[in-house]
Amino acid sequence: MAQDIKAIETKLAAARTRLILDKPFLGSLVMHLPLKAADPKWCETTATDARFFYFNPDYIARLTLDQTQFVLAHEAMHCALSHFNRRNHRQKHRWDVACDYAVNMILDDERMPPPDAALMNAQYRGLSAEEIYPLLHEDPPEQTMDQHLFDDSGSGQGGEGEPEDEDRDDDSQGGDQGEGEEEGGAGEQGDASEASQAEAGEQDAPPQPPMDLDQLDEQWQGRLAAAATAARQAGKLSSSMMRLVDDLLAPKLPWRALLARYMMNAARDDYSFQRTSRREGEAMMPRLYSQSVKVAVVLDTSGSIGDDELREFLAEIDALKAQVRADVVLHACDDKLAEGGPWRYAMWEAMNLPDGLLGGGGTDFRPVFEWLDRDRLDPDLLVYFTDAEGRFPAAEPRFPVVWLVKGKAPVPFGVRIQLN
What we know:
This protein is of the alpha/beta class. It has helices spanning about 1-20, 25-30, 55-60, 65-80, 90-110, 130, 165-175, 175-185, 190, 215-235, 240-250, 255-265, 305-325, 365-375, and strands at about 35, 45-50, 55, 145-150, 270, 285-290, 295-300, 325-335, 345, 380-385, 400-405, 415-420. The chain folds into two domains: about 1-245, no CATH class; about 255-270 and about 285-420, 3-Layer(aba) Sandwich (Rossmann fold), CATH 3.40.50. Pfam families: DUF2201, DUF2201_N.
């Protein structure tokens, strides 16, 4: 048996290594789940409690190396998506099935071959577990391919059956063991012990569910952000995964607060080292100075954003520009610049939506950047209110850009603020 476990450990280690090399985002997440062999009596395939990756050695032995990568990434994505902390009032089995569909379609987009029992349905592609849940039968006949050990409300066991209440009672008697596992898995110190791939013996009972789900959620959000950053820098984060990560990590602050933050940063006071007059001495002393900031504001008039939303956005800009001492140049664009623009406003002048602003064509962002370059405006900040679905310039401009986006479309450069 020991020899069999050793061979399974080697197979799992090889699968994790290939993930690190080929898909570093997923590989980094997988490395935060130390491996534990589990008793086949309660673990038919694989399982996670957001602290460990539990596996049935016989099940792993039947998988190909590609399928082994899939099941490792599957458990890690459940954790990265915080499925353990998002169920709320929902029925557990139905929620577990929705979570499996959501994860499996993400991995399918990454062209990862699944095991035979994986739940796959193209109509759920791009949907979150919350969006899939109401589309399922109230008591779904589907079974998840793994177990989600996040609470005591039953199991998401794939395949045959679910652990009975007697198993949970037995587990509660081993409370000391469960608490020890939580301490080792929830802390970053537990992640560092990756060299010990699996425990010497099998996990003979399902672990107790995590106690502090909010703390675990915060840890996985940090791991998600770090993994995405590393994969981006390596140039190995797919566009679909990048959109997913951006949505997951979208700031929870209201867009007004975020917009104010970036405008304040653009207009912050700074120090001047300009030489003083001779009457003040020969020394060059830093002095705090203030100056107005030049902000370019552009409205997308392609038809996806209504007049009320445009007025609300301009009212927010109007309120902010006095605070940051901003002179604003306003323009509008669909696939071409609006006639009558640009409109210029000093910091004390009220801004209103220009009369007769027409649009409704396609969306092309290039005319705006060509206009700014042609007129050599070089703003301290460009704020673009748009749905971000259009043609972007090939190169990033030399000035900072903030995109206030209605919808889920990504942007190729600048700072993206979700209109929530």
